[in-house]
Amino acid sequence: MKGADYRNLNKLNDSPVPVHPIGSGIFAAPFVFISNYLSNQINLDSVVSLNYFIYSLIPILYLYLSLKMMLKIFSSKKIEIDIIYLIILALGSGVSYFAFERFSMSHVYEFFGQVLIFYLIFQFENTKSKSNKNFMLYLIPIFLFLVFSIRWSNYHVFISPFIYAIVFDKKLTKKFFSVYFFSGIVTGLSIYYFISYQLYGVLTFNPSDLFLQVENRLAYNYERFFQPELFFDNLKLIWESLLVILFGYEFGVIYFSPIIFIGFISFFIFLYKRKYMLSMTIFIVSFVPFMGVVVFQNTAYSYGYRHLYSLTPIYILFLIKFLNKNLFIKRYLIVFSIFSIISQVFFEASQESILYSEYVINSFGQETKFANPDYLSGLLKSFIKVDSYLNVIFTSFLGILIIKALGYITPPLEFINNFRTPNEDIIRLVDNSESISFFFLLILLSLFLCIGNDIFKKRTN
Fold first, then answer.
1. What is the rounded CA–CA span in Å between residue 185 and residue 415?
2. Domains in the chain: boundaries
3. How confident is the prediction along the chain (461 residues), in pLDDT tens digits per residue?
4. Core vs surface per residue 304-318: b (16+ CB within 10 A) or e
5. Does the CA dihedral 115-120-124-129 come out positive or negative?
6. CA distance 192 to 330
7. Roughly what angle, to the nearest 10 degrees, separates helices 386-394 and 327-346?
8. Are 313 and 111 in contact (CB under 8 A)?
């Protein structure tokens, strides 16, 4: 982009490259390949290209496949779980916002990648053929590196086989110490380093080697944790940050990501129950994503604490296996997960529930853009504003259908003018909605009907 040619450099040839990892692009590539082909074959008169439309559906499909794989694992382990409950847990984490709204961001891909690893281990566990088992042992570590390439700070991905073993069968751990598994590690590491070297000209597992070139203002927050004289100050910062993450009005996880809240406090629950292995596992997988938020000292400029979303599948696994019989936890998760889903729908539906584009003091006491320290109270105020509901309806799939239907009866702008004077945003919304092809709406409606039918069948079986 103009003015950003040197935002991040390949250290060998000074060429501009993206600061974000390539993994989500790798997982989107098969679908984009198909959409490129279809785009060349089908000519549609639409404000949205067929290529972009199909690309926007990929995270929805991956989220759906993730839930199917999790349900398959639980059902095979004779663990009863209602598919609706599982959906509520996943959507209530906040990750669904990045499936339906900010679909170019990596969080659904992280969610899917983590579940995919668990599913591959599940397939290895249940495969009878020795040759297939050896192949799966080789394949699993390759996918560990591919999933890690989605976000270079998700180090917990590499202990996924041991997480699965701890939850379901500790005897599995010994089976990972095989020549096929280590061969897969060598192959996966080679692929990862090839990508890293080609893109950035470095061989590194540390995202700060690249990211701090762009966000150098974070250098002090990162480097302070390597200064022994700041040990007690750092402990204070960690404790204060934890309280903000858990209970702050700006996307505190107790309100807006309840499964992540339960995941955090499960460390103390398992500690109290003297299940030290489970407690230590929760601590290890949570440490780096949590410290990422401590270093950033913000929620990461979008909905919720999005750098924690990659932990959601792991927390769901621990919850369903070890804590699902606790009625209080279950009721809390259902109520606040539904509240979180509603929050995602009303996010940016009014001035009170937006992230401010000008500088404000966020919940961590930092001056930054794209923050809202009073998001919780702002969201509640949005619930009593008529404009909020109009914004939710008319910036959605339903709104497009309404505008298109109105077009057959009366000019939509004339109809809207009976209630309020159309501003520039409304005029653009109506024009774009009228320009979207009915073919896209038919595809989208068919997709949701197929998903809904599959969920209904699973629940009634």
1. 62
2. 23-347, 396-460
3. 555 555 666 666 767 777 778 899 999 999 999 988 888 888 776 777 888 889 999 999 999 999 999 999 999 999 988 999 999 999 999 999 999 999 999 999 999 999 999 999 999 999 989 999 999 999 999 999 999 999 988 999 999 999 999 999 999 999 999 999 999 999 999 999 898 888 887 777 777 766 666 666 667 778 888 899 999 999 999 999 999 999 999 999 999 999 999 999 999 999 999 999 999 999 999 999 999 999 989 998 899 999 999 999 999 999 999 998 899 999 999 999 999 999 999 999 999 999 998 999 999 999 999 999 999 999 999 999 988 888 888 778 778 888 888 888 888 888 878 777 777 877 888 888 878 888 888 888 888 899 888 888 877 66
4. bbbbbbbbbbbbbbb
5. positive
6. 40
7. 80
8. yes
User: Would you state the structure tokens that stand for residue 397, as one six-digit string?
Assistant: 């799939």
- Show the tokens assigned to 192: 């990862």
Distance, CA of 164 to CA of 308 (rounded, Å): 19
H helix or E strand, kind and range, residue 59: helix 50-76
Packing angle, helices 23-41 and 50-76, rounded to 10: 130
Strands 360-361 and 367-368, sheet pairing: antiparallel
First to last CA, the chain: 52
Q: How far, in Å, are 187, 314, 350 from residue 408 at the CA level?
A: 58, 49, 30
Token pair for residue 254? 């107790």
Task: Return the closest-CA partner of residue 293 out of 244, 342, 327.
Answer: 244
C-alpha torsion sign, points 344, 349, 354, 358: positive
Task: Supply angle C-alpha 65, 71, 77, rounded to 5.
Answer: 140
Q: Which of 441, 357, 461, 370 is nearest to 56 (CA)?
A: 441
> CA 40, CA 226: separation in Å to the nearest integer?
53
Structure tokens of 315?
A: 């927390």
- Total number of residues shown for the chain: 461
- What is the number of H-type helices and E-type strands within the chain? 23, 2
**Amino acid identity, residue 300?**
A
- Taking the CA of residue 412 as centre, how many other CA atoms within 13 Å lie in the half-sphere pointing to its CB? 22
